[in-house]
Amino acid sequence: MQQAFYELADHLTSLMRGGEVYTCYFSGEVSDFVRFNKSAIRQPGRVTQRHLFIDLISGSRHASGTIGLSGDPAADKGRVADLAQKLRDAIPHLPEDPHLLYSTEVRSGERIQESTLPSPAEATDAILAAGRGRDLVGIYAAGGIFAGFANSFGQRNWYANHSFNFDWSFYHAGDKAVKCSYAGFAWDQKAFETKVAEAARQLEVLALPPKVIQPGKYRVYLTPNALYELLGTLCWSGFGLKDNKTRQSCFLKMIDGEARLHESVTILENTAKGVAPDFQAQGFIKPPHVALIEKGRYANSLASPRSAKEYGVPTNGASDIEMPESLDMQPGTIPAAEALSRLGTGVYVSNLWYLNYSDRPACRITGMTRFATLWVENGKIAAPLSVMRFDETTYRMLGEKLVGLTDRTEMILDAYTYESRSVGSGRVPGALIEDFTFTL
Amino acid sequence: MHTDIKKLFREVAPAVDFCSLRVLREASEQLMVRHEIPQPVVFREDIGGMVTVIDRGGLGYAATSDLSREGLRRAVEDATEWAKRSAGRAVTNFTAIEQPHPTGHYETPVRAPWQSMPMAQKMDILRQECKRLRTEEKIVDSVASFWYTEAESRFIAADGSEATQRLFHLIPVLSATANKGTETQTRTLGGRGYCQQGGLEVLETVRFRELAPQIATEALALLDAPNCPSGKLDLLLDPDQMILQIHESIGHPLELDRILGDERNYAGTSFVTPEMIGTYQYGSKLLNITFDPSRREQFATYGFDDEGQPAKREFIIKDGILVRALGGTTSRGRSGIPGVANARASGWNRPPIDRMANLNLEPGDSTLEQMIAAVEDGVYMKANRSWSIDDSRNKFQFGCEWARRIEKGKLTTLLKNPNYRGISATFWRNLKLVANASTLQIMGTPYCGKGEPNQMVRVGHAAPACLFAGVDVFGGE
């Protein structure tokens, strides 16, 4: 796809008329998706797609559009020419854009990871074998993900990632399940079998007689997966410059110095250690990392070129939505192997689910426990719990009530596939919290 | 759209138990003015197709943006390969499920086509309304926008049967955010809920040119309002919150694929079991829910679903009793449970699964005034802003933009940060009064997420105001 994209970019360059410039961003994938339910195949298939976003700029006026590409070079040149003309026709009817900002410094680059993926048949066979005698449900997504940037100044960037992500659950009964994932770039059957065996062991715990607890305050341990869900919600308004400046950030009180998180909380956008491209749609290259929260205090916002121009600060290469893609929460000092013993008596939360703000200015979040939520007594798992609703402020969860973070982080690759496969990721420790409020 | 695609498809279609091609062309325009600054106009056009093959009990699909003969041939090959791999190892014998062979055409009626107004004029309207949202300094952000989409689809079965559709959607948005210190409050035109099918006439229907000043005034007033009180109180919900309540705690739990377990790894399961269909008392006798593709202006109206099944109106809950699930051809074939034509895909690149379409709460016979007068101590909430529910679609907590206290049958204090929580299985049994058609709003959302791979689809919900007894309500910090 790289060559085809570069040829299209050259074609687009040839279509520019006096004074016009363009930026364009390509995204594509060839993915196999195999959906499983009850250890059988529900929906298997392949998706091949290519999209091109073009921003045509004439002075301070511009218009943008996205088209689907067919993969046929002649047909795609025609589609690009049609879109360029449509944008050219629209521009005279649009006012000047005072917040337009694009990179004029040419910084080309490539980040290409070749395919070492198993065949779809091999992966499917391995998964069905793992599900034999069990109730397995989930999705295997695998294949190439591609992204590219080009502009009329000659900048060319390319990104290719061949990865798989098998995101699945073993169900015991009802809503009692163990949630797992096995993701990476090369399938290691032994590593997969180890994960399956570990999940099967956890499944045995769910067969214990369940315990019911009443709403109230409990000491809890959030696994890295559970904490990643919480951080994912905070990414929704927490770190963007526009949300900060328009006073819609969930961290408003921290930005104003009226509140802070625990000193052990340091969060970065760590592009260098993530799997997402290091370039964005206006041609800016992302720095290796941006400190978002340092030692419990708000440090920096993610500034897209547009927000940067609007608020008069430098851009740090954020995309338009100004959300982290390669989240990195620094580890703490609690030995990960001692998570249960340090919890003592309380709730071990494997996963959180469906989080949302119940009072955004107070950074208060509600959500549910999901899958394996366990009651722990004196450092030992005693019983599975039914799902519980929590409603808590982040200033308590990751502030005054945070006992500590584990000394190891886990790398989590997003399994999201809305429109296309995500390249988001997180490095997250576990968190021990006291007086965590369950409400229902 | 590709006049010869049917011919190309029939040339490459394999000799299998069933094969279909679904082609979708979707074009959209997004216009926005934010705080009086016009934002970049975004055009989008996409076209592609999905081949589905069913053979010897197996099923496979392949989606491609290459609709040439060679592109379709490769897609047929990929789909056939997956059908072979899944044969004998699938959740059901797909060959045993009778597939629809639709014929016909459906199109959204449009009175004022989107293209009938020049773009510059549309931008002027947005500029004017955005300016009317920014009434004073404390309004720190304001947005007026239009998101217009036209979708043209063809469902072609290898036997030659074919159904075509053209749908036109418009989503108008108004939003004002007010701030004072660390207090920030936002009021909107029902989020993106006032979305409908049609052309520019939708703007008139949703009073787009009238409501900006009221939205700004309400956002400002909320800055000084007290928090919603806590307690078990009567709760009156306006249609712009009812649509979320219906969506999350009736629509999702009744999707048959969730009941069959397909969604357990992502969107979740359901507290509803197959045995409950036909007998379960879901709500009070005032609760009547329909799957209704007959309202032609509603956001998720269509003539055929994405498996080719013709759509028709059905009662899902009748006088409080659950009578039918939301399951398309495949789910009905797998389970034998009665369903509706609701197998839908978010685009050409995703396979159809069970979705809500238009899921509506039928009006009752109370006026809004009678409902307020019937409340001794309660809260009246409007416009959803927060939603969270467990994976069985049972324990929920929702929040709204705006509320007022109801005391001794009268509306009193304005309240900020109103929230409430409950359990689906019992909440609807406390439905005390349902307003008549005078309060009914035809609404929906462009963002219903579900499925593996993930899919975001449009859904429609129409509802009147409803009154619930003894709900756990509370406010912010």
State the low-pLDDT regions of chain A, or none.
none
Count of helical regions of chain A: 10
Rg of chain B over CA atoms, rounded to whole Å, is 23 Å
Instruction: Specify the helix fraction band of chain B.
Output: 10-25%
Helix amount of chain A:
10-25%
Please report the distance between the alpha carbons of the first and last residues of chain A: 51 Å
Quickly count the helices of chain B: 10
In terms of quaternary structure, the protein is heterodimer
Task: Count the E strands of chain B.
Answer: 24
Shape of chain B: globular
The most extensive interface, with participating residues per chain, is: A-B, 90 and 83 residues
Strand content of chain B: 35-45%
Radius of gyration of chain A: 24 Å
Largest sheet of chain B: 9 strands, mixed
What is the tally of beta strands of chain A?
Answer: 20
Average residue-wise pLDDT of chain B = 97
List the helices and strands and how they pair.
The complex is a heterodimer of chains A (440) and B (477).
Chain A (H helix, E strand, L loop, with lengths): L1 H14 L4 E18 L2 E19 L2 E8 L4 H18 L18 E4 L7 H12 L3 E17 L4 E18 L2 E9 L4 H18 L9 E7 L1 H11 L6 H5 L6 H4 L11 E3 L20 E5 L2 E2 L6 H7 L14 E4 L9 H5 L2 E14 L4 E14 L2 E5 L4 E5 H7 L1 E4 L4 E4 L11 E4 L2 E8 L2
Parallel strand pairs in A: 4-6, 8-13, 12-19
Antiparallel strand pairs in A: 1-2, 1-5, 2-3, 5-6, 6-7, 8-20, 9-10, 9-12, 10-11, 13-14, 14-15, 14-16, 17-20, 18-19
Chain B lengths: L4 H8 L5 E17 L2 E2 L3 E14 L2 E7 L4 H18 L17 E4 L11 H15 L5 E19 L4 E19 L2 E6 L7 E2 L3 H5 L6 H12 L7 E7 L1 H13 L4 H4 L29 E3 L22 E5 L2 E2 L6 H7 L7 E2 L8 E2 L4 E3 L6 H6 L3 E13 L5 E13 L2 E6 L3 E5 H4 L3 E4 L6 E10 L4 E9 L2 E9 L3
Parallel strand pairs in B: 5-7, 10-17
Antiparallel strand pairs in B: 1-2, 1-3, 1-6, 3-4, 6-7, 7-8, 7-9, 10-24, 11-12, 11-16, 12-13, 14-15, 17-18, 18-19, 18-20, 20-24, 21-24, 22-23
Helix pairs in contact in B: 1-2, 3-5
